[in-house]
Amino acid sequence: MISPILIAMIILICVFWTGFLTVLESRFTWFYITRYLFGSDGVVKIPFDNYSFAEQVCSIALIFIMFYGGFGTNVRYAKNVAVRAVLLSTVGVLVTFAVTGCFLSFCSPYEFRLNHF
After folding, report:
1. Are 21 and 27 spatial neighbours (Cβ–Cβ below 8 Å)?
2. Ranges assigned E (strand) in the chain
3. pLDDT tens figures, 28-43
4. Helix (H) or strand (E) holding 30
5. Whole-number mean pLDDT of the chain?
6. Cα–Cα distance measured from residue 20 to residue 14, given in angstroms and rounded to the nearest whole number
7. What is the C-alpha to C-alpha distance for residues 45 and 37, in angstroms, rounded to an integer?
8. Closest C-alpha to 19, from 57, 73, 68
9. Which of the four pLDDT bands, split at 50, 70 and 90, describes residue 20?
10. DSSP character for 47?
11. Are 71 and 15 in contact (CB under 8 A)?
12. Residue 27 banded pLDDT, cuts 50, 70, 90
């Protein structure tokens, strides 16, 4: 279980760095600095060999990223590209499915059948 103090510290540092890096306009720098703060070799030294703890930290980071992205999105602009975005993501999933299926059917030693029952 992640301690509430560590969660609060991560959120405060993320908010601070987000405000600070708005001046720099570099998202890469944010990830680079965060890695050196929270990485296994960083200042906080989060042990990523503890997979459940690493999963919790990554889930909190993902929640923060989604929350930040949701508030940074202009709904007027999102409505204009929503249909294209959904279509592109659906086509991307279908193409990935087809390419992976073809690759596995030709390169895998296993036999794939549609009727398994």
Report:
1. yes
2. none
3. 667 777 777 777 777 7
4. helix 27-38
5. 77
6. 10
7. 8
8. 68
9. low
10. -
11. no
12. low
Contact 1, 7 (CB under 8 A): no
Give the closest residue to 38 by CA, choosing from 2, 72, 71. 2
**Cβ–Cβ under 8 Å, residues 34 and 17:** yes
Q: Which stretches of 39-74 are DSSP H helices?
A: 51-71
Q: How far apart are CA 79 and CA 61, in angstroms?
A: 27
| pTM score over 0.90 | no
| Axis-axis angle for helices 4-24, 51-71 (nearest 10) | 40
Nearest to 56 by CA among 110, 17, 4, 92: 4
pLDDT digits 0-9 by tens, 45-58:
776 777 787 788 78
Rounded percentage of the chain residues whose pLDDT exceeds 70: 78
- List Cα–Cα distances, 51 to 18, 21, 59, in angstroms: 27, 30, 12
Tokens representing residue 83 in the block: 């249909």
Alpha helices in the chain (DSSP H): 4-24, 27-38, 51-71, 75-107
